[in-house]
Amino acid sequence: MDKNNPIGIFDSGVGGLTVLKEVGRILPAENIIYLGDTARVPYGIRSAETVTRYSFECTEFLLRQDIKLLIVACNTVSAISLNKIREKVPIPVIGVIEPGARAAVNSTKNKKIGIIGTEATIKSSSYLRAIKSLDGDIEVCGLPCPLFVPLVEEGWTSGVIARLVVERYLKDIMDKGVDTLVLGCTHYPLLKGVIQDVMNDVCLVDSAIETAKVVKDVLAEMGMLIVRSCEGRRKFFVTDSTEKFINVGERFLQSRIEDITKIEL
Ligand code: DGL
To answer: Do 166 and 135 contact (CB within 8 A), yes or no?
Structure first.
């Protein structure tokens, strides 16, 4: 295994770019390959069996690119299939649930944490289990927010519509008195501003940022961090139109998407 081998990241579509953005920010020298399964997005409404099957196909594709570490950027896949992926691959696999759960446990003072995510993520109770394994006294309240994903992809991340939708969903969770809220879906960091406005005293945990920190620690432990001043390569693969991915993705990434190829899994 060579240090210069890329980090592999996959997601159901464009959302995992929020994780790529954070990994790129703290590890700019790393070479990164991103796969978005845009032909089959969304995963968050599918059965566990289907999500696992799709995630194996994404994993196999990235392993063929000689990656040194795999990041499962999709909360839904991390919630449902992470252990099954880990059993199958010979390299470290990092999901987004554990890092987000740990940061939430460290943040809460009143031991009440809210989790928002897709239907599949909330139904899996993975965040709840991860939090309870760290501190059994914490109360966890999970809430699916299915409209957030299309809202963000449409670019409506601020303004009156975003505010109304966020208020409508988060009302129940506010009534529970949580002091910490985990943004348990790839798309939700783009709604951070509105969510923070609506829940102004609550600490928001961005799983993407927390995951990037874990990736850095794991690579350092393996002696696999690239230390150099120049920027690493970014390569993108998608399973549907590259054009649409670039349009929406550049907004998520806040930088250009250049080297992109459409593939079949
Ligand atoms: N990437 C998914 C997640 O983080 C959101 C989009 C989808 O449902 O596929 O759960």
So the answer is: no
- Which of 120, 124, 62 has the alpha carbon at shortest distance from 93? 62
Which residue minimizes the CA distance to atom 2 of ligand 1?
74
Joined together, the tokens standing for residue 64 give 């063929």
| Closest ligand 1 atom number to CA of residue 45 | 8
pLDDT of the residue at 206? 95
pLDDT band at 82 (very low <50, low <70, confident <90, very high): very high
Is-catalytic flag, 74? Answer: yes
Total domains, the chain: 2
| pLDDT tens digit sequence for 43-55 | 999 999 999 999 9
216 and 89 together in one domain: yes
Which residue, judged by its Cα, is nearest atom 7 of ligand 1?
42
Would you state the pLDDT for residue 38? Answer: 97
**pTM value > 0.85:** yes
Residues 211/186, Cβ–Cβ less than 8 Å: no
The CATH number for 56's domain is 3.40.50.1860
Question: Running DSSP on this structure, what letter comes out for residue 173?
Answer: H
Sign, CA dihedral 137-72-211-17, equals: negative
Residue range 235-264: average pLDDT?
96
CB of 121 within 6 A of ligand 1: the answer is yes
> Largest Cα–Cα distance in the chain?
51
